[in-house]
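Handoff note, outgoing to incoming analyst
You'll be picking up this chain. Sequence as last confirmed:
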Amino acid sequence: MSTLDPQQLIKRIDTILDILVAKDYPSAINNLEILKTELVDIYRDENLNPGEQKKSPWEI
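Most recent structure output, in case you need it:
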């Protein structure tokens, strides 16, 4: 299970803001999507009920 490190999150947001200032919008959007996916995964891991297993990526 991953933990949320606020300092690391701040650095990543700052990086995305720098990319936006440089007007590289596709890269900024890509980085935001990656960050969102990681945050959602952390949230799901922390809210997993005891005894409930995380699904494999190929399970639908």
